[in-house]
Amino acid sequence: MSYSIAEAARRSGLSIDTLRYYERIKLLDPPARDTAGRRAYSDDDLNWLGFLTKLRTTGMPIKSMREYASLRRHGVASAGRRKALLVEQRRSVAERIAELQGCLDILDYKIENYAQVERKVLGVEPGMEEISA
């Protein structure tokens, strides 16, 4: 199956400009071209774009993504380094999750504290009044 750049953008959730940018910075290999010379993206291209999107969502820097994409072109010989990049990114994500969990714990504590204030001190049901931090 092949997709026009507009369809690839729609399916990937990326803009047409982003697709062209990814191609220009070599995150994405140039897609095949149709008989009219227009880009024709494959299902493999869309799967790769999906993975790139996940890497960006994890906060992986473009520089690291470019290294990963370059290594990917070398096949199995680069598997160790690609794995190392992913392990490092996973560590970074785990640290962010722990930090966010700490923030969530504080929010839960404050919300419960204010719920107790509403019940005990104000004598109202939770949600009836706003209490500022």
From TrEMBL:
Where does the record place the HTH merR-type domain? 1-71
For this protein, the record's CDD domains field holds:
HTH_YyaN (cd01109)
Q: Name one Pfam family in it.
A: MerR_1
Question: What Gene Ontology terms describe what this protein does at the molecular function level?
Answer: DNA binding; DNA-binding transcription factor activity
Keyword terms, alphabetized: DNA-binding
Q: Which Gene3D superfamilies match?
A: 1.10.1660.10
- Record-linked InterPro entries: DNA-bd_dom_put_sf, MerR-type_HTH_dom, MerR_fam
Source organism, top-level taxon: Bacteria
Q: Which SMART domains does this one have?
A: HTH_MERR
- Listed PANTHER family: HTH-TYPE TRANSCRIPTIONAL REGULATOR ADHR, REDOX-CYCLING DRUG-SENSING TRANSCRIPTIONAL ACTIVATOR SOXR
Q: What is this protein called?
A: MerR family transcriptional regulator
